[in-house]
Design goal:
mainly beta; 49% strand; 172 residues; single chain; globular
Length: 172
């Protein structure tokens, strides 16, 4: 199954943050999206009042899990169990990007809350710049978007093809 993604343009004054950490002893990579307080609509308020939980969807690429949450299924977190000794080491050229966006899942085709994709991610680390590129697909044509000051995603059509994390905090 192919998961389709869509983008939502955000106002330039909205400052979404990303906190990214790699704990080498646990082989744990974690990036969490921190969204500014967003005004909720009436539907969200009713759901909250009656105890309806927001949706969660996990997209799994081998050892990498990308979680989307809330009613609009926006990117929430990126987690991976990965050994940094197996990452490729090279200088990463930062791609030029279009405007700042929010990444959403476009209408999932089933009610499943977890999808597995057969592609294994490839990790490329730029030690000098503390930057990690995660290639999800070997697609030559990508369009890049900023999700936050420290997170860029690459899309090929409506398919997520790469993730670029800046200022990765590496804990020994």
């Amino acid at each position: 199954m192919i998961i389709q993604f869509k983008i939502l343009n955000t106002k330039s004054d909205i400052n979404t943050k990303t906190s990214a950490t790699y704990a080498s002893r646990e082989y744990s990579l974690e990036a969490i999206m921190i969204y500014p307080q967003i005004t909720t609509n009436l539907s969200d308020e009713i759901d909250k009042t009656v105890g309806v939980r927001s949706k969660n969807l996990q997209v799994v690429y081998g050892d990498l899990t990308i979680t989307f949450a809330n009613n609009d299924l926006r990117l929430k977190s990126i987690d991976s169990y990965t050994n940094s000794d197996k990452w490729f080491k090279q200088t990463i050229k930062i791609p030029s990007t279009d405007k700042k966006i929010c990444l959403l899942v476009a209408d999932p085709l089933t009610s499943d809350d977890k999808f597995s994709i057969s592609n294994e991610p490839i990790y490329i680390f730029d030690d000098k710049n503390s930057c990690l590129l995660i290639k999800l697909d070997n697609i030559a044509t990508e369009k890049f978007y900023h999700l936050s000051e420290t997170l860029i995603v690459g899309l090929s059509g409506n398919k997520l093809s790469s993730i670029l994390l800046f200022d990765l905090l590496v804990q020994k």
